[in-house]
Structure formats: C-alpha cells, structure tokens
Specification:
BirA Bifunctional Protein, domain 2, alpha+beta, two-stranded antiparallel sheet, 2 domains
C-alpha cells in the first residue's frame, strides 16, 4: 500500500524538522504541517475511508501510531524550548547578591507581620508568652480534643484540606485554626498558663475577604480563679492599645463555639460615618473576635480537672484586623507579592512596635 510505504519517510523528515526547531513558533508550524487539518498525516488519515476493511486493519494502526509519536516528539521539544527560554531569561535577570542594596530597594515588613508584632508586644506587656505548633495536624488536636463531635460540619471536606490517608488509614489535615496549639500547651505545661498563639491556618475559601490560607492569633489563660470579667477586661484593654485610642467600649454577645462555654463574640464601639471606621467613638459596633471560657470537656481532654481549673480563650483573624486598622480593601493582594503594594502598605522592619514607644 502506498500509504504504508510513505510513513517511514514522513516520520524521518518530521523528526528531523522537530529536532531542528529553534523556537516555539517554528515548532507550531511543523505541527500544523504534519498534524493540522491539512497536514500530511491528517490527509493520509482521510484516505482510510476509501480502503478495504483489510487495508484499514493495517493502515489505521500505522497512521495512529505515527500521529501519536509525532505528537509526543513535538510536546517533548516544546518542553525543551520552554525550559531553554526560562533559563535564558534567568540569565538576563541575574543579580549580584554580594552588592549592597540600593537605598530605594530596602524591603518592608508585611502588614500582617506588623499586626503580629503589635499584638505580641501588647500581650507580652500583660504577661503572655508566645506558643507555636505544626501546620499539619491530626484529628485529635484539630477536632476531637476541642470538643468537635463526630459529624460536626467543620470536619467536612468543604471547609477542611484533608491529606491522603497514611498507612494506618488516618488522615492528617492542614489545621483549620490555631486552637490545636492550645491543646498541645495544656497537655505539656502545668497551670497557670498564659499564652498567645500566632500562625497560619487553612480553609477552603477565596474572595475579597477570605483566602484559603490566612493568619490567626489566639489567646489562652488557665488558672484557678479566671472568669469572664478577666476575659472582657483583658481584651478591651488590649484592643484599646491596638487601635491606639485612650478609651474604648466593648460588648460581649452570646454565641456558640464547641470549645468554649459560655461563648461570645466581642464588639468594639466605633464610628462608621465618613467612609472609614474609627474605633473608640460613635454609636456603631465593630465585631472583633470570638471568645469564651474554656469548655470543661476540653480541659478534661487535656488531663486538667475542670473542678480545679478554668480559663478563657479567644481567637481572631489577623488579616482582617490589618485591613481594619490600615485601610486595605481586599485580602487577595496580601498574597500576590506585588512590590508596589508592599512599598505602599509595608512598614520599616527595624522599627519594632512597643506599648510605651508606639505600635505603628
């Protein structure tokens, strides 16, 4: 058959042309010439309709095999050309890192890190230390120990990033809150406990006010005589300092969290007129965080006797807090590594915030 006889020559010519292609445009021209609607291989494929069944049995697989081999060769060459283009670009963008930085190229501290530093300074002044824990957690620390019963909605796939099951069938998760560090702290330290917990957390969400990775800071205080009055006073004072206002009013609204009882959300008095939020004045209220007294079940899960110990916990989103204080309208640029954005909203990294010297 003439069709079969021509295939080795076509493949040899096409392979040489593919190997010799010096850029993606040339490679695309070869693909069109061989595999496009009017390419050589495509035109031969059209001849299958005029063949006998016996001829098609031989010619069909041969043509399909040629088409697949040429397609694979084109894709491989395309990958080589793309890699070469990237390497060439990197060579032209080479920087001498031994040179001193230009004055205009000094970096800036990200607003989220600035808020972490400010809150750490505020709570350190109140006697809180910083605790940290892993981003990848097990079910016990992320859910069970925090009084999330089986079947709780927060365990479902639409909220949580689950990892593949391990050899024992257990699925780790990207932590959905920094609360697992509370569990680790209570299980390794004896009361009294007074810690704040900054860190990254992960949930399936993405819009102007939600991102799949964001930042939280939580606080935990465990002692023998801690009560809701301590909680409210501590938070009111902390956020008066954070928003840098002489006096601030707060209120607690009843709420529900599995790991605290009673639970509440805290609002700060503010003024929303004039296109900006001013904390410490006005007749409006601004939701700041969730809080409450640590649930007795959580204490038991950490081997603490709720008849002897009690305490409070609170948690808030740092990204949103930075938006409120520094006027950023959208969360998504936080993670886009835009140099101009960082220059505009960033902070001088060597000016560490202090309660006495000023936060921002």
């Amino acid at each position: 058959m003439a069709v079969i006889d021509d295939l080795p020559k076509i493949e040899s010519e096409a392979a040489k042309a593919i190997a010799a292609a010096g850029d993606e445009a040339s490679l695309e021209s070869i693909r069109v010439a061989e595999l496009g609607k009017k390419g050589r291989v495509s035109l031969l494929m059209r001849e299958l309709g005029g063949m006998t069944p016996e001829q098609r049995t031989t010619a069909g697989p041969a043509l399909n095999g040629l088409k697949d081999r040429l397609g694979a060769a084109i894709n491989a060459r395309k990958a080589e050309l793309e890699a070469a283009a990237i390497n060439a670009r990197l060579e032209t963008e080479r920087e001498d890192l031994t040179l001193p930085p230009r004055p205009e190229a000094v970096g800036a501290l990200h607003p989220v890190m600035q808020v972490f530093e400010e809150l750490a300074a505020i709570f350190a002044d109140m006697g809180f230390s910083v605790a940290e824990g892993p981003d990848i957690e097990d079910d016990f620390h992320n859910f069970t120990a925090l009084n999330f019963p089986a079947g709780h909605p927060a365990r479902e796939m639409h909220d949580t990033f689950f990892l593949k099951p391990d050899a024992e069938g257990q699925r780790k998760v990207l932590r959905t809150h920094t609360s697992p560090v509370q569990i680790r702290t209570m299980m390794t330290q004896a009361p009294p406990i007074r810690v704040i917990i900054p860190g990254r957390v992960y949930r399936k969400d993405w819009d102007a006010t939600h991102t799949p990775m964001f930042h939280q800071i939580e606080g935990l205080m465990i002692d023998k005589s801690t009560h809701m009055g301590h909680l409210k006073t501590c938070l009111t004072e902390a956020f008066s300092r954070f928003f840098e206002v002489p006096t601030a009013q707060s209120r607690l609204r009843p709420h529900y969290f599995p790991f605290t009882e009673p639970s509440a959300e805290m609002d700060m008095r503010c003024d929303r007129s004039g296109g900006e939020i001013k904390v410490g004045e006005g007749n409006d209220w601004l939701e700041i965080l969730g809080c409450g007294m640590v649930h007795p079940n959580v204490l038991r899960n950490c081997n603490l006797d709720p008849e002897e110990y009690q305490g409070f916990a609170f948690g808030l989103g740092v990204d949103r807090l930075a938006m409120l204080k520094y006027g950023m309208p959208d969360l998504r640029p936080y993670f886009e590594a835009d140099v101009d954005w960082i220059k505009h909203y960033g902070f001088k990294p060597w000016l560490l915030p202090t309660v006495t010297g000023g936060l921002s």
